[in-house]
Amino acid sequence: MKIATWNVNSLKVRLPHLLEWLADQPIDVVCLQETKLTDDKFPREAIAQAGYESVFIGQPTYNGVAILTRRDTVGAPTDVRFGNPLHADEQRRLISATVAGVRVVCAYFPNGQSIDSDKYVYKLEWIDRLIDWLAPQIAQGLPLALAGDFNIAPEDRDVRNPAEWAGQVLCSVPERERFLRLVNSGLVDSFRLFEQPEKIFTWWDYRQMAFRRNNGLRIDHVLVSENLRDRVLGCQVERELRKREQPSDHAPVVVELAPGDQGPSSSR
DNA sequence: ATGGCCCGTAGAACGGGA
Question: Whose CA, among A57, A135, A146, A221, lies 20 to 30 Å from A34?
Fold first, then answer.
């Protein structure tokens, strides 16, 4: 079973890329962030014709998240939940569902803007509430994948120019400390389970030809619970989608999971 | 030195992203 996360930066604009990608790649579960669509405008039909069920929650202009599941393999998701029950948040940043026995949490972490911004305070608080919610479930042994745009580069090796970013939003100590707290609640960064080439990133600024110069950050992640660790077969960044005309500034991250005891399609 | 792009909402610039 393949699980992917992708910040599309407007699903309206990126829908053709998404459909071409899914026609080409056998992804079973796709977590999307920054759909920027209200629910009445979500392209459920086009995605259904491509063979995917979708659950989603959006708002005008900002945020918006969705989980797509491949009908032929994993079927429709169950126990869909919107938001964090421990956090009355107006912003649509979280959706979770059970797919093939795995609790999939699709998250669009706040950006934070800059470390002296109110948005930064909100970011840290938002993550704290997320940990409060997820940690007990992980501790109880729920097989879980937390996939999304974390807006955190966990270590300096996840940044092309660490000196430029030192102490800045996405790289600050409090953010990295929270990433570690998430990991320490019983998750592993699937990307780091494998020997990886250096300088692999998931986001590149649209400006300054940053992608061509590979001036990026690794801020999109798939963390899996310890009890799924042995099932992770690989984790890679789909740079191809960032090379296209009119790309998202993020590239997808794809994780492959070996079938569980119940198999990938027997969950429902 | 600063900001240099893209998207949505606008119906011109501006907020937000990262």
Answer: A135
